[in-house]
Amino acid sequence: MKLIIATIKPFKLEEVREALTAIGVRGMMVTEIKGFGSQSGHTEIYRGAEYAVNFVPKIKLEIVVAAGMADQVVETIVNTAQTGKIGDGKIFVLDVLQAVRVRTGETDADAL
Fold it and tell me: In CATH, what number is assigned to the domain containing residue 88?
């Protein structure tokens, strides 16, 4: 099993969710986060005053899938979330050693 952690722009969330559901992803966790990468934030003007926005709003997706499906999930996220502009996000893929469904006690692939 693989854990896929993706950060994307907030306005892309629904489009990414629909695309992942279409390829068979059955669940994901979504968190609103703030962060910065190579863009290091930006400046905005509010009521005539310029101020620095050091942390940019993002959405973090956490998805656990069978190892054989991981590449397809990553490709789907990239194709759906990509705008071609700085700050589109990042994707990390990690190994998952164990999963347990709390309600039934099912483990590993059955727990997904």
Answer: 3.30.70.120
Tokens of 29: 């966790």
pLDDT averaged per 10 residues in sequence order, the chain, 112 residues: 97 97 96 82 66 82 96 98 91 96 92 86
**Exposure b/e, 56-70, CB count within 10 A at least 16 = b:** bebbbbebbbeeebb
List, as one string, the DSSP characters of 52-82.
EE-SEEEEEEEEEE-GGGHHHHHHHHHHHH-
Please count the structural domains in the chain. 1
- The parent domain of residue 42 ranges over 2-111
pLDDT score, position 40 = 65
Q: What are phi and psi of 69, to 5 degrees?
A: -100, -10
List of residues 6+ apart from 16 with CB closer than 8 A = 6, 8, 61, 76, 77, 80, 81
Three-state DSSP class for 4? strand
